[in-house]
Amino acid sequence: MLYRYAGEPDGAADLSAYTDAGSVSAYAEKAVQWCVKNGILTGKTSSTLAPKATATRAECAAMLQRFAAL
Questions:
Q1: Closest Cα partner for 55 from 1, 7, 4?
Q2: What is the rounded distance in angstroms from the CA atom of residue 9 to the CA atom of residue 46?
Q3: Tens of pLDDT along 34-69?
Q4: Using CA atoms, how far apart are residues 13 and 16, in angstroms rounded to an integer?
Q5: Residue 3 above 90 pLDDT?
Q6: What are the UniProt keywords, alphabetically (predicted)?
Q7: What pLDDT score was predicted for residue 63?
Q8: Are 28 and 51 in contact (CB under 8 A)?
């Protein structure tokens, strides 16, 4: 949602540090890469993104705060 709001900007990031990067849906891959590159997404842990998990209210608030700081 934030990626589209930002106008779908270019900016790929290497997701190989995350063991579950292969679980990111193809339609969301560019958005996830952009969010990781810009620090909006930092992962559930240092080595997992948990792309199929639900986000808590606190996690959403943190992502919105990081996005607003761009």
A1: 1
A2: 25
A3: 999 999 999 999 999 999 999 999 999 999 999 999
A4: 9
A5: yes
A6: Repeat
A7: 97
A8: yes
In whole angstroms, what is the distance from residue 41 CA to residue 47 CA? 12
For the stretch 49-57, contacts whose Cβ atoms lie closer than 8 Å and that sit 24 or more positions apart, written own/partner, are 49/15, 49/18, 49/20, 49/21, 49/23, 49/24, 50/20, 51/20, 51/23, 51/24, 51/25, 52/23
pLDDT category at 19 given cuts 50, 70, 90 is very high
Closest to 55 (Cα-Cα) out of 40, 69, 70 = 40
DSSP 23: G
With cut-offs at 50, 70 and 90, classify the pLDDT of residue 11: confident
Token pair 């193809």 in the structure block, residue: 26
Tell me the C-alpha distance between 18 and 66, whole Å.
20
